[in-house]
Amino acid sequence: MFDKQQLKLYFICGTQDIPEVTTIQHVLKEALSAGITMFQFREKGATALRGNDKEKLAIELLELCRAYNVPFIVNDDIELARKIDADGVHVGQDDQSVNVFATQFQDKIIGLSISDEDEYQQSDLTHVDYIGVGPMYQTSSKKDANAPVGPSMIPTLRAHVGDLPIVAIGGIQIDNTNTIMQHGADGVSVISAIAQSSSVSNTVRQFLQTVE
């Protein structure tokens, strides 16, 4: 059962985000131990794993999340999410329409990316559990990211979506998280600030202090 508290510190990561000196398994385990509240497997780019290799890694990471009772979300790949029985899926504006798969993906968490009011107007939120809003700030983690919309987009969209949970994403660091939360976000999505941290545990704990 989805609870918006699970969005507090939402770690998003794929192999492309991990420094060469470590592995995604090690980084995720450290992040889980320190207290992340949700994890999204986002395997993107030229070096991304595909096919059986991607599925094998997804299962390993899913099992890690299950051990810590943290929801495991798959980015974009509906078939993979179904095949491994992930806890949910997150899709963007350019991905398959939520309505197309929602009926076959019942009792799972569904997240949708919305950057601004125009995208909100084009989105059917009937089956959506939460929206990801951003990028808040300039980000290097997503090559195809839109221009930053800033924290003020959170209350702008809140006026349209009411109590629907909102998680902020894009360029989020420990020192700007408090501002984002003050604008009404239910949590923050973090990629590089955790994935590339020299001390994942300490970084996660510092983030947790700012989102409370």
TrEMBL record:
<dbReference type="Pfam" id="PF02581">
    <property type="entry name" value="TMP-TENI"/>
</dbReference>
<dbReference type="InterPro" id="IPR013785">
    <property type="entry name" value="Aldolase_TIM"/>
</dbReference>
<feature type="binding site">
    <location>
        <begin position="139"/>
        <end position="141"/>
    </location>
    <ligand>
        <name>2-[(2R,5Z)-2-carboxy-4-methylthiazol-5(2H)-ylidene]ethyl phosphate</name>
    </ligand>
</feature>
<feature type="binding site">
    <location>
        <position position="76"/>
    </location>
    <ligand>
        <name>Mg(2+)</name>
    </ligand>
</feature>
<comment type="similarity">
    <text>Belongs to the thiamine-phosphate synthase family.</text>
</comment>
<dbReference type="InterPro" id="IPR036206">
    <property type="entry name" value="ThiamineP_synth_sf"/>
</dbReference>
<protein>
    <recommendedName>
        <fullName>Thiamine-phosphate synthase</fullName>
        <ecNumber>2.5.1.3</ecNumber>
    </recommendedName>
</protein>
<dbReference type="InterPro" id="IPR022998">
    <property type="entry name" value="ThiamineP_synth_TenI"/>
</dbReference>
<feature type="binding site">
    <location>
        <position position="113"/>
    </location>
    <ligand>
        <name>4-amino-2-methyl-5-(diphosphooxymethyl)pyrimidine</name>
    </ligand>
</feature>
<dbReference type="InterPro" id="IPR034291">
    <property type="entry name" value="TMP_synthase"/>
</dbReference>
<keyword id="KW-0808">Transferase</keyword>
<comment type="pathway">
    <text>Cofactor biosynthesis; thiamine diphosphate biosynthesis; thiamine phosphate from 4-amino-2-methyl-5-diphosphomethylpyrimidine and 4-methyl-5-(2-phosphoethyl)-thiazole: step 1/1.</text>
</comment>
<keyword id="KW-0479">Metal-binding</keyword>
<comment type="function">
    <text>Condenses 4-methyl-5-(beta-hydroxyethyl)thiazole monophosphate (THZ-P) and 2-methyl-4-amino-5-hydroxymethyl pyrimidine pyrophosphate (HMP-PP) to form thiamine monophosphate (TMP).</text>
</comment>
<feature type="binding site">
    <location>
        <position position="171"/>
    </location>
    <ligand>
        <name>2-[(2R,5Z)-2-carboxy-4-methylthiazol-5(2H)-ylidene]ethyl phosphate</name>
    </ligand>
</feature>
<feature type="binding site">
    <location>
        <begin position="191"/>
        <end position="192"/>
    </location>
    <ligand>
        <name>2-[(2R,5Z)-2-carboxy-4-methylthiazol-5(2H)-ylidene]ethyl phosphate</name>
    </ligand>
</feature>
<feature type="domain" description="Thiamine phosphate synthase/TenI">
    <location>
        <begin position="9"/>
        <end position="194"/>
    </location>
</feature>
<feature type="binding site">
    <location>
        <begin position="40"/>
        <end position="44"/>
    </location>
    <ligand>
        <name>4-amino-2-methyl-5-(diphosphooxymethyl)pyrimidine</name>
    </ligand>
</feature>
<keyword id="KW-0784">Thiamine biosynthesis</keyword>
<keyword id="KW-0460">Magnesium</keyword>
<feature type="binding site">
    <location>
        <position position="142"/>
    </location>
    <ligand>
        <name>4-amino-2-methyl-5-(diphosphooxymethyl)pyrimidine</name>
    </ligand>
</feature>
<feature type="binding site">
    <location>
        <position position="95"/>
    </location>
    <ligand>
        <name>Mg(2+)</name>
    </ligand>
</feature>
<feature type="binding site">
    <location>
        <position position="75"/>
    </location>
    <ligand>
        <name>4-amino-2-methyl-5-(diphosphooxymethyl)pyrimidine</name>
    </ligand>
</feature>
